[in-house]
Amino acid sequence: MIEHVHDCPTFICYRRDDGYEPAKLVYDLLMDPELSEPYNKSFRFDVFLDKEVPGVPNFWKVHQPYLQKATAFILICTPGAKCNNGPEDWVHKEINWWLQYRNTNPILVAPSQFEKPWIPQQILNKWPNIQRISFDTKKISSSQEEKNLSLIHISEPTRRTPISYAVFCLK
Fold it and tell me: Of the candidates 150, 165, 153, which has an alpha carbon nearest to the alpha carbon of residue 41?
């Protein structure tokens, strides 16, 4: 029996050029209403994916309120996400905001079609041994269609610095 539903506002950060497909897969998975974790706790995710909200010329007008509300930050680690295009780079504005205002590490999703995980330097500077979730978009796409995929979100608040990560599992 499920005790009660835990809200989990989640922000997905990605570079549109090469990260939209895995970001959309993560979004779709998190929006599945049947997600739960061990101990019969259920999660309701409120997920921000910028393709799902109207585009605006002012970055902070829409993005910042979602970042402020988020308790989880998922970064899709692609070559584009590692590349910093200067002070107006939205991906790095989101990452830098998270690093400045949150103590919880981001959840790194590394799509397997890239030869290595592309992790922005400012994240590695703060968490040099940060864990990554390897993400095979082809397997996940087919598993998701068959509803054989589940997500376990694990949070470790007992450490000096809270750690949060997610695990995608085939059922």
Answer: 153
